[in-house]
Amino acid sequence: MARFYALTTGWCPECRELIPAGLTEEDGCILLDKMCPVHGSEKVLISRDVRRYKAYFNHIRPGVRPKYRFTSDFKGCPDSCGLCPQHRQHTCLPIAEITSRCDLACPVCLKPREAVFEMSPEEFRESLLKLRSYEESLILLNLSGGEPTLHPRFSEFIDISAELGVAQLTVSTNGLRLLKDKALRDLFIKNRVVAALQFDGLTEATYETLRGRNLLQTKKEIIRIFEQEDLPYSLVTVAARGVSEREIPQVADYFFKSKALSLMIQPAAVSGRAQDNFSPDLRLTIDEVVNNLETSKFIKPGDLAPIACSHPGCAASAYYFKVRDGEFLSLMEFLGLEEYLRVTANRSFPGLEPEGHQIILDKIYDRWSALSPSQEDKVLMSRIRSFLKRLEGQDFSPNRAFEAGRESVKSVFVHGLMDPYSFDLARLVKCCNHYLQAGGRLVPMCAQNLSLSAGKSSETL
Ligand code: SF4
Ligand code: SF4
Ligand code: SF4
Ligand SMILES: [Zn+2]
Q1: Domain encompassing residue 15
Q2: Which of 176, 195, 321, 450 could form a disulfide with 233 if both were Cys (CB 3.0 to 4.6 A apart)?
Q3: pTM for this model (two decimals)
Q4: Residues 312 and 380 in one domain
């Protein structure tokens, strides 16, 4: 017998329309139970772990309403995207898709084959200026595509980001051009731009299935060069059922032993080109990925919690302080759940603003002033204290904070992008990952991916 939890709005992948849907519990799983008046009903797996799914809803925190308004009135969701006055979360991560050019044709690509786009640096500057006038500061910005490094005027995007005060620029990349082009790598190094490198696993078969080519040795060579030249990078892993879920703990171990700053695991979303090549079963649930991660040598059960700024069904994260080589302490273990959520809510990097900073300092004081702190505790506390000290000073500088973070902090994220099967409108309204379009419009990432995969232009959203 199914238990009914909530009514929401889903999407029919056949007629590409919004349809009524319910969240239900059946046989220990959470399902999105959709009903299309034309194409009938469909049940989509959302979670295999009801206990964890329900616990995640205890983590909801109030959002920060965006001041940014592209659309002044609300005509219905997601038809008013822009952001509109009903949107419930500001932009934590703006993403500029600067070109659809690419030197791969991955079967798992989210973009449909026919999607062709290119943003000019002039359009980029105008949009970024608009965003800056609404957000207090531009902490994070991601350039994406396609393969953004193939934009013929790529270096201008880096210059503009620096000029307009972006503290941390990341570039999503398959790494092929960076491998061949030393001058491009030097540009990244000089500007401290982080390469968010596609890295799907540690077997040849995974790359052949997801990327259409065996790229394993190429990826290892790219990482070797990044580390040798001290090019800052993070790893982005698309994990897929029946393909790579067993590799997840090994990828995490590899990450903790590497110089990579963060690991982002994205359960494969079956959108765009992936819809032509795979069945929706490819998508793992967030709890399946988290359960797999927790078998890594470096990750303990409970380290990951939902990111408290978006919808709790969208993403989970964990942060780790490096105690010494090969030894890490999770921020969750250090702070406990309540304070962890306070420190991480509504911000892209925890502990950098006064409240979060103070919470961490107080915790250090508590542990330090315990009756008999162990030797291990003393080493750890002094390490964290010296990290925080580097952030202090007359003026807080996000750039300085990121530099300090690079040496002492590692983060792990799981981001479950929605596809036409798993789409749930309730998640979209609190989305904090927004595509920055020419003209200054901001569109929640899943709304845009879905509209393209549904063959609608983003203009209609
Ligand atoms: S997703 Fe957000 S911005 Fe888009 S229409 Fe809905 S509430 Fe408005
Ligand atoms: S997934 Fe990325 S690298 Fe692969 S084809 Fe799509 S844009 Fe190119
Ligand atoms: S991009 Fe999609 S999955 Fe991520 S926060 Fe936004 S709505 Fe949620
Ligand atoms: Zn339908």
Answers
A1: 1-47
A2: 195
A3: 0.92
A4: yes
